[in-house]
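Appendix B. Raw example, untouched.
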Amino acid sequence: MAPDGGGEDAAGGEAVEAAPVVKAKKKPVDVKNAGALGVTAGPMTVVKEMSLPPARQAGKIIAGDDAKAKAAALAKALHEEVKII
């Protein structure tokens, strides 16, 4: 491959045009600042107030001797208190 990004064709040795990526590396990039574009640089948003989220309620421990009693108490709490079931 030639140093200019071109290469040789496998069949006849004829030069092949450089890939678009190589051309993009050679293209100059225009650098402009905000003033040149007529834009004033400054804060786009203003923070009026910041606060913490509300405190979460404490979890509830379901008491019971066996798994069946705990499951029944959980189902009752979900139905009556949270109204999920």
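End of appendix B.
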